[in-house]
Amino acid sequence: MLQAIRYSPRTASSPAALELLDQRQLPLVAIFVPVSTLQQAHDAIKTMVVRGAPAIAIAAGLALAVELQAGGGASRFADGAACASHIASSADYLVSSRPTAVNLAELCGRLKSAASAAAPEGAEAVASAVVRAAEAELAADVATNKALARHGAEALLANVRGGEGVRVLTHCNTGSLATAGYGTALGCVRALKEAGRLAHAYCTETRPYNQGARLTAYELVTDGLTPATLVVDSAAAALMASGAVDAVVVGADRVANNGDTANKIGTYALAIACAHHGIPFFVAAPCTTLDAETASGADIRIEQR
Question: What pTM value is reported for the model?
Fold first, then answer.
């Protein structure tokens, strides 16, 4: 699978290191950008060097882990409370880089809680707890995505109109490039392929930033999730009308308490087209994307570009 995040834990001979694949350059050039400071991480997230709700969160957590292990580590702080305070302010700063995706705020909240719990034990304990928590998030995201994709593939197969394989359309990019690995909505496509039940994958261009054309199409070809076709956004409804699509599966940046879902622009149009044509429409998202504190979609802060 393609990899958007490269992280190396600290060893006796080398410091912790984080590199992010610059997704603005894909599919023409694959360049990894080193991230060693919180400002670099904030800029990388805000300018979409790294994107995708799960990947954003993981990148922020690992950037904080790298920062805590650099420049003298926990010895910079007078005590556990001072270290925990630094982590809290750093986490809040990172959350400001992408407010729509709830995964980022949720993960930073968990890191702040880990820091607070360890504060009575001293600065070294706080830093160690946060580093362990951030590293655990990386492994957990891959495991979660694989489980999500397995359930998603089963749901797709149970709801299609018939036949041995599924012809599925997806929007934006929700694969390995948008997560720590495997993917959410595109992970469902991957799971169908592994089960021998993918008849055809369609991806939309995804205007205005072309994540589908630049990233999803790249993943489909590179990872062999074929046969696959890239379609312009405005052709999706006509494709459904032709009978070529059995189901649509998309990801999410945030799911409000009432079930309203915020995702890349164009998702709403696909949902309406699916409703008109009687095509199953699925949102594939991990529990970290659920936001019980936000009542409805009207309360979600949407990033306008």
Answer: 0.84
Host domain of residue 187: 150-299
Domain boundary among 120, 142, 164: 142
- 74-94 pLDDT, tens digit per residue, is 889 999 999 999 999 999 999
- Active-site hit among 141, 246, 253, 291: 253
* Residue 22 a catalytic site member: no
Cα–Cα distances (Å) from 106 to 30, 36, 90, 257, 301, in that order, read 29, 22, 14, 15, 15
Q: Which helix (H) or strand (E) holds 109?
A: helix 102-118
Only one residue has tokens 């957590």, namely 61
pLDDT at res. 162: 66
Query: Do the domain assignments include residue 117?
Result: yes
- Looking at the structure, tell me whether residues 81 and 172 fall in a common domain: no
DSSP assignment of 248-299, as one string?
Answer: EEE--SEE-TTS-EE-STTHHHHHHHHHHHT--EEE---GGGB-TTS-SGGG
**Which CATH number is 179's domain given?**
3.40.50.10470
